[in-house]
From TrEMBL:
Residues 426-440 have a biased composition (Basic residues). Residues 441-454 have a biased composition (Low complexity). It comes from the Bacteria. This is Uncharacterized protein. Residues 422-470 are annotated as: Disordered. It comes from Saccharopolyspora thermophila.
Length: 470
């Protein structure tokens, strides 16, 4: 519609709106506090994200005769491609995720975030940059006149950082959608640069197979003989069922074994602190050893922990085991029913939490929730992104934390440099305002925003290397 009105204004002898109107509409769209006021007047952030770009495009189309619409069209096109990929991913996954009313039912999640919401780095930069631009415009007004002063102030609109973030987020969103991940809230991909703490829920990273992790010998038996029998009788998918051989050896839960003499209770009590199951290995009715069994982690867990380190975020493990298989972590918090409290405690300490879990209440309370669920289980509807068991997709998202910071660092300098070029332009200095395109105040020149959008696009290269979305 903005392009249509722009074309009409070029063909018809209408008087366009003052050039300042288009720049002011962009300022409302970019400034965090002004945008928040609009969200309060509308029906929330989602409606504001739909209304503000349209209003800005209409204002630019009428006021500047289409001069600032090229970048907006490119951004909306990339967002449309992202939304289209999400719809295709949901259409393919819906029969598997929602097989009946029970799969779609969910209680509301109403857990207020402890403390004030975290302020985005780009939001703080935008507020400071626009405040400086207003001050410069006010200082220039006595010498150049009010309209030239307004032009100086509006030339400092930092549009480049937002364009860079959108370029990165839309590219990442399309890549994830092609892998089958469902983005329930695409805004979470725009907030990745804020994340400083990644919490991995050990329960969600467990696979379906088990393996022996510890062994305590009883009655002076030989290690080689016991280990050989243990691995012969152990079944990785059914560790809690007794298994016997023809020589009278039996492996199973201690309480299911008919034993005489030592029962291994002390060894079992010690192993239960770090094991999922405790098994007894007996020959006849005499106990030979007590084994601790743990669940194997899903494929890709090692790469996921490495991605957290590359991103520069703090790695926190949610586990109730004192001897967890994850040793290279910064902290350990409670999981299960206490995971929600653990996430809120981290947020109260000032952390911005990305949670990888299947606990929907904790996912809903986190700042960015990545829902993991196995086939046949109910999806974690509280998550911002549903990935199933695809830990490679989770690794890409975690890598995106560091990449998003890098994009913000690379695109932020584009705005002040472009603003300086706009203010120092000979056309801006010598042409009367309102008579030619160069005299119309507008936001940061589109060239800077296009460069920033390219910085966040498919070719983004940063220290945190992630698989390149295509």
């Amino acid at each position: 519609m903005g392009l249509l009105i722009s074309a009409v204004t070029r063909l018809a002898p209408w008087t366009p709106l003052p050039a300042e109107v288009g720049a002011l509409a962009t300022a409302v769209q970019l400034h965090p506090k002004l945008r928040r006021l609009v969200e309060q007047g509308l029906r929330g952030r989602e409606q504001a994200e739909s209304v503000l770009p349209v209003v800005s495009a209409l204002a630019q189309g009428v006021a500047t005769r289409g001069g600032g619409l090229v970048l907006d069209v490119a951004e909306r096109w990339s967002q449309w491609r992202e939304a289209d990929a999400d719809r295709a991913a949901w259409a393919a996954a819906e029969p598997r995720l929602v097989r009946g009313p029970d799969d779609a039912a969910a209680d509301p999640i109403a857990v207020p975030r402890p403390g004030p919401p975290h302020r985005d780095v780009l939001a703080r930069y935008t507020e400071r940059a626009m405040a400086v631009a207003v001050a410069c415009g006010a200082a220039a007004t006595p010498y150049a006149g009010p309209r030239r002063g307004l032009a100086v102030a509006l030339a400092g609109e930092p549009k480049a950082p937002d364009a860079g973030r959108e370029g990165f987020a839309t590219t990442l969103g399309r890549y994830l959608a092609r892998r089958g991940a469902i983005a329930m809230d695409r805004g979470a991909l725009r907030r990745l640069g804020q994340v400083d703490t990644v919490v991995l829920d050990e329960d969600a990273l467990r696979g379906d197979r088990y393996e022996p992790a510890d062994l305590v010998l009883v009655n002076g038996t030989e290690l080689e003989a016991v280990a050989e029998r243990l691995y012969e009788l152990f079944h990785p998918t059914e560790p809690d069922r007794p298994h016997r051989d023809a020589d009278g050896w039996v492996l199973g839960p201690l309480e299911d074994l008919d034993l005489t003499g030592r029962t291994g209770r002390q060894a079992a009590a010690r192993l239960r602190r770090s094991s999922d199951h405790v098994l007894g290995l007996a020959r006849g009715r005499r106990l030979q050893a007590v084994a601790g069994v743990v669940a194997q982690t899903m494929p890709g867990t090692q790469a996921l922990t490495a991605a957290v380190r590359r991103s520069g975020a703090r790695l926190v493990l949610a586990s109730d085991h004192t001897g967890s298989a994850f040793g290279f972590v910064d902290a350990v918090v409670h999981t299960g029913r206490r995971l929600l409290t653990s996430v809120c405690d981290l947020q109260a300490d000032g952390a911005v939490v990305l949670l990888v879990s299947g606990n929907r209440a904790a996912l809903g309370a986190s700042d960015c929730g990545i829902g993991v669920h196995r086939d046949g289980d109910r999806p974690a509807w509280g998550a911002d992104v549903l990935v199933g068991t695809d830990l490679e997709a989770v690794t890409v998202i975690v890598d995106g934390v560091g990449v998003a910071r890098c994009v913000a660092t690379r695109t932020a300098p584009c705005s002040p440099r472009a603003a300086a070029v706009s203010v120092r332009s000979p056309r801006c200095r010598h042409r009367p305002p309102g008579r030619a395109h160069g005299g119309r105040p507008r936001a940061t020149p589109p060239g800077a925003s296009r460069s920033a959008s390219a910085c966040g696009g498919p070719g983004t290269c940063c220290p945190a290397r992630s698989p390149r979305p295509s």
